[in-house]
């Protein structure tokens, strides 16, 4: 897609902002020489009566929305010209002199359809070459001020499309710039009010063909939320055997898609039939301009299995029931033939299951041949002239890899693994197919290892990277994304369609800009937009670490790296900031802000805090801490609060979105959604009893143990264990404190004091009191390194005493390690070197290809990946290189182990597994393949279930490295490998397992 030179120049000019995303700005709310609507003069819209019905419908949206924005209703001149060579006299009789208004009119028209535009093409020599340039193009358009478009009109704002959607997109782009969000209905974003609208001179908002031809959504897994909402809102007081997914419902979806510059839809399918439930559904889709198709398991534009159960006869088996299946599919093709459609080929078993576990390629070949014959017979032309798609979903890709092929004109629809990792990229040969290829992606999924249908747990950064891989490998004929109930995936859908429309406009480094522009468009505040964008980003970063449905009470470590508490603190910060912003926004924005920003924050925080507190509840019980009951109370409160947050969503706008937040999500017992939310298990301790060793309980960082008394985690023996020792501190420890906690073991109050035996050991606080059973105090231990000689490792002992008579000691070793003068790089602490991969020491390109940082990718900070260079690959040690300097004080008998944390990316290119190579210093590079190959039936390997659930793959190599300075070398071997973190262990057992891994080491 290209924009004109004037667009690029205009990017340097400051103009009062319009609100569209990504493209140039052609409208202004301050005066220019071209007024469209001012004061008492509403806009005037000129449209030819012979234009497409869908264009006329969009023009009515233009009229309606401009009235909402300006307070004045534009007039529409529906012009009828008498011949293919109309004259200005024909026009003047119909415009009634309105061409002489001080405001310029808005001209709307489609090439080859609008005689008004035909007249302009004849009359204006400067316009003709622009129109010639888009003639015959797919969904291209011109949107700009045109001087003297026809005789008698000095200037007009022209919206001209190469086809009907090219025109329609121009209309909706105009409205977006004028202050109308695509989400004005589906997320209740208010209209932005402007008394005046002007066109900016010498700027073009014209667009070429989109980056992806068909761009759409799949409404799927629609029970309970979307289905129950539709029953309530669209039944019109009637009852039926199936939910009313009728033209009234779908009209809202069609309009949203067009406003997002999408054009393609797979409709709901589990208890509905698009072509049957409302006989006008298909007509309405075509009237709007939406291309209809059906999902990967629904051949020939028929809902399966719903329509088969209603109209079919016999087995769902081609060999045994060919005659009935042929009739069934023929009726589907006939029904869709008057309308713009893409026909799904192939056949899966009923219930979205494999048709044949043995992978009978010959059977599938015969089915496709029969379907093609049906298409040719119905359309009375070669089947190659009718758009068709074959979706290589799950086991179907296995058929393809074992040799099944479809005709060259059929689009191959590659898929992700249902978890956002693309399974396959087109080879050089496949990129030359006339039917091209595309991608079926997921924001919602039902299946192993876990359903995920609640909340928005997607990373813009990740799916941008995956889709960029697809686009650069030529998979750009169809992009379709499973969006479940549609809500609450608004921003993910928005970016998916924005990127599909123009992949060149948004790089991996533009995502902050996108979110800020999105926030400005939706909420209209220059000062708050960056803050809202930051909240959206940080909410996503917390949610994508794990699907909410997978979180449990032990996922985040309760003892190491302060992991669980850091998660809750991050959520608490977001809740505070989001709440503050919600108070600053005008009340008109409350409903939209709640849906798009605040609900994801408060609901996400509530869920994760509940599970973390359930974990603390169990931990504290094992430690004989009376705070066990406090955490039990918290879990019960948060569980009920989850329902309160749901009800708050449902109450918005007098119940407009009732049912939309009812998806169950708490208490999964296996992969399928729970039938009822259930609270995580909690326990309680006797509140009237004092712990056997006395009322004071001592616990320390990095341990599940508790003192005094016995506990299975104190030592191997589990009883008569020595007093605790916390992990040592060094000057290079990422945290310069260790802690112990004093808490109640029963209802008896007590006071305590803590006294170190050395001056360099500092405590904060050093005394306190536990007034009741819910009390606890954390004591931070730190070191005055100026008082510890370099190279020494003295032990400091703290004596903790309670007035109850209890006494116990805690030991801390201060290991004052040093590195050579002038050294730069990471430094070991406590047997660990942990590195975020974007913090490399040096980067070396090969053949113009280097590693690139992908911001906000993954579970921590970011990731790195080789720049996408199609068909590039390298031998181990010969590819693009990242180097990481690090210094160690220990080794495992002269060796270290290195764990690389990588994304669960799949082996996307046949014959070339996704690998990387790694070495230390001058060691021979070791090639590592993180993901094993697919199974014989074409499904991911069994370990995939664990790795996609955790969103990470850990691969371990061993390297020779005595204590001292070293360089770790990470080599690219294949494009598509993504890694987030590298962790080096120099002491066996030094690194406890935690979900996010160790803190990043200090770099000097």
Structural account:
The chain has 1004 residues and is an alpha/beta fold. Helix content is 29%, strand content 20%. It contains 22 helices and 36 strands. The strands form eight sheets. The chain has an eight-stranded parallel β-sheet with strand order 11-10-9-16-15-14-13-12. Strands 25, 27, 30, 32, 33 and 35 form a six-stranded mixed β-sheet that branches. Strands 4-3-5-7-6 form a five-stranded mixed β-sheet, with helices on both faces. Strand 15 (437-442), helix 15 (460-472) and strand 16 form a beta-alpha-beta unit. The longest helix is centred in the middle third of the chain and has 33 residues, at 590-622. The protein is globular and about 105 Å long. Mean pLDDT is 94; it is low at 1-16.
Kindly report the average pLDDT value: 94
As a whole number of angstroms, the C-alpha radius of gyration is 32 Å
Q: Structural class of the secondary structure composition?
A: alpha/beta
Name the strands of the widest sheet in spatial order: 11-10-9-16-15-14-13-12
Q: Beta-strand level of the residues, as a percent range? A: 15-25%
The tally of beta strands, per DSSP, is: 36
Cα distance spanning the termini: 45 Å
Range of helix content: 25-40%
Could you give a short account of the major beta sheet? 8 strands, parallel
Q: If helices are DSSP runs of H or I spanning 4 or more residues, what is the number of helices?
A: 22
Q: Name the shape in a single word.
A: globular
């Amino acid at each position: 897609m290209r924009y004109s030179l004037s667009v690029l120049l205009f990017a340097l000019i400051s103009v009062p902002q319009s609100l569209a995303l990504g493209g140039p700005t052609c409208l202004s709310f301050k005066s220019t020489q071209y007024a469209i609507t001012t004061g008492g003069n509403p806009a005037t819209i000129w449209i030819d009566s012979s234009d497409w019905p869908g264009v006329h419908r969009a023009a009515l949206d233009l009229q309606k929305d401009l009235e909402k924005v300006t307070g004045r209703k534009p007039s529409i001149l529906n012009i009828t010209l008498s011949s293919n060579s109309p004259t200005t006299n024909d026009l003047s009789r119909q415009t009634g002199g309105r061409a002489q208004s001080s405001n310029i009119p808005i001209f709307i028209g489609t090439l080859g359809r609008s005689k008004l535009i035909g007249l302009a093409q004849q009359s204006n020599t400067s316009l003709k070459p622009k129109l010639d340039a888009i003639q015959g193009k797919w969904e291209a358009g011109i949107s700009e001020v045109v001087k003297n478009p026809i005789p008698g009109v000095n200037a007009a704002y022209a919206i001209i499309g190469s086809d009907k959607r090219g025109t329609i997109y121009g209309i909706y782009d105009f409205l977006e710039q004028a202050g109308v969000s695509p989400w004005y209905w589906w997320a209740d974003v208010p209209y932005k009010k402007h008394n005046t609208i002007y066109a900016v001179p010498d700027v073009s908002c014209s667009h070429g063909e989109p980056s992806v031809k068909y761009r759409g959504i799949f409404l799927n897994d629609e029970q309970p939320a979307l289905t129950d909402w539709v029953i309530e809102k669209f039944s019109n007081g009637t009852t039926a055997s199936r939910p009313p997914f009728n033209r009234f419902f779908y009209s809202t979806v069609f309009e949203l898609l067009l406003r997002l510059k999408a054009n393609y839809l797979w409709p709901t399918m589990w208890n509905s039939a698009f072509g049957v439930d409302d006989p006008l559904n298909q007509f309405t889709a075509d009237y709007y301009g939406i291309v209809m198709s059906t999902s990967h398991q629904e051949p020939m534009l028929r809902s399966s299995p719903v329509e088969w159960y209603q109209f079919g006869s016999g087995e769902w088996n081609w060999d045994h029931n060919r005659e009935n299946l042929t009739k069934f599919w023929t009726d589907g093709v006939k029904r869709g033939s008057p309308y713009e459609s893409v026909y799904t080929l192939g056949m899966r078993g009923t219930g979205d299951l494999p048709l044949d576990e043995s992978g009978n390629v010959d059977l599938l070949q015969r089915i496709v041949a029969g379907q093609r014959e049906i298409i040719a017979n119905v359309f009375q032309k070669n089947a190659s002239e009718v758009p068709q798609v074959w979706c290589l979903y799950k086991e179907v890709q296995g058929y393809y890899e074992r040799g099944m092929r479809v005709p060259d004109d059929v689009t191959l629809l590659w898929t992700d693994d249902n978890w956002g990792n693309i399974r396959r990229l087109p080879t050089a040969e496949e990129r030359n197919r006339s039917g091209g290829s595309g991608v079926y992606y997921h924001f919602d999924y039902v299946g192993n290892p876990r359903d995920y249908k609640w909340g928005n747990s997607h990373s813009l950064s990740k799916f941008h990277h995956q889709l960029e891989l697809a686009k650069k490998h030529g998979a750009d004929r169809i992009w379709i994304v499973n969006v479940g109930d549609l809500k609450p995936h608004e921003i993910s859908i928005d970016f998916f369609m924005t990127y599909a429309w123009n992949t060149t406009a948004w790089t991996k480094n533009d995502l902050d800009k996108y979110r800020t522009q999105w926030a400005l468009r939706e909420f209209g505040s220059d000062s708050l937009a960056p803050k809202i964008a930051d909240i959206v980003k940080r909410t996503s970063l917390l949610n994508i670490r794990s699907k909410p449905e997978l979180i449990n009470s032990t996922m985040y470590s309760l003892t190491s790296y302060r992991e669980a508490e850091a998660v809750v603190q991050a959520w608490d910060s977001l809740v505070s900031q989001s709440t503050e912003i919600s108070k600053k926004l005008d009340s008109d924005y409350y409903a939209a802000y709640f849906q798009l920003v605040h609900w994801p924050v408060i609901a996400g925080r509530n869920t994760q805090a509940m599970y973390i507190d359930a974990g603390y509840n169990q931990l504290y019980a094992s430690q004989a801490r009376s705070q066990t009951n406090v955490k039990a109370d918290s879990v019960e409160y948060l569980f009920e609060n989850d329902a309160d947050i749901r009800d708050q969503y449902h109450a918005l706008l007098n119940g407009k979105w009732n049912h939309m937040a009812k998806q169950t999500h708490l208490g999964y017992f296996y992969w399928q959604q729970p039938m009822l939310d259930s609270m995580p298990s909690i326990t309680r301790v006797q509140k009237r009893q004092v712990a056997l060793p006395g009322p004071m309980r001592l616990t320390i960082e990095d341990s599940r143990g508790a003192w005094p008394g016995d506990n299975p985690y104190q030592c191997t023996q589990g009883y008569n264990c020595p007093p605790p020792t916390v992990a040592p501190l060094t000057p290079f420890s990422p945290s310069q404190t260790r802690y112990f906690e004093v808490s109640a073991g029963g209802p008896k109050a007590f006071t305590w004091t803590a006294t170190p035996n050395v001056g360099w050991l500092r405590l904060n606080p050093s005394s306190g009191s536990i007034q009741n059973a819910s009390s606890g105090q954390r004591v931070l231990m730190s070191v005055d390194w100026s008082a510890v000689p370099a190279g020494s490792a003295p032990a400091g002992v703290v004596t903790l005493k309670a007035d109850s008579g209890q006494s116990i000691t805690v030991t801390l070793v201060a290991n004052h390690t040093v590195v050579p003068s002038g050294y730069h790089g990471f430094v070991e602490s406590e047997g660990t070197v942990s590195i975020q991969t974007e913090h490399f020491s040096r980067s070396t390109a090969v053949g113009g290809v280097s590693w690139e940082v992908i911001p906000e990718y993954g579970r921590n900070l970011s990731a790195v990946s080789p720049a996408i260079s199609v068909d590039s690959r390298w031998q181990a040690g010969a590819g693009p290189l990242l180097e990481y300097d690090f210094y160690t004080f220990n080794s495992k008998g002269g060796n270290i182990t290195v764990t690389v944390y990588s994304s669960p990316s799949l082996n996307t290119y046949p014959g070339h597994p996704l690998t990387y190579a790694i070495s230390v210093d001058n060691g021979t590079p070791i090639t590592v393949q993180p993901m094993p190959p697919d199974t014989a039936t074409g499904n991911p390997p069994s370990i995939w279930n664990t790795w996609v659930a955790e969103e990470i793959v850990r691969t371990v190599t061993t390297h020779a490295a005595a204590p001292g300075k070293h360089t770790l070398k990470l080599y690219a071997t294949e494009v598509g490998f993504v890694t987030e973190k590298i962790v080096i262990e120099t002491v066996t057992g030094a690194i406890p397992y935690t979900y996010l891994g160790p803190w990043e080491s200090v770099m000097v």
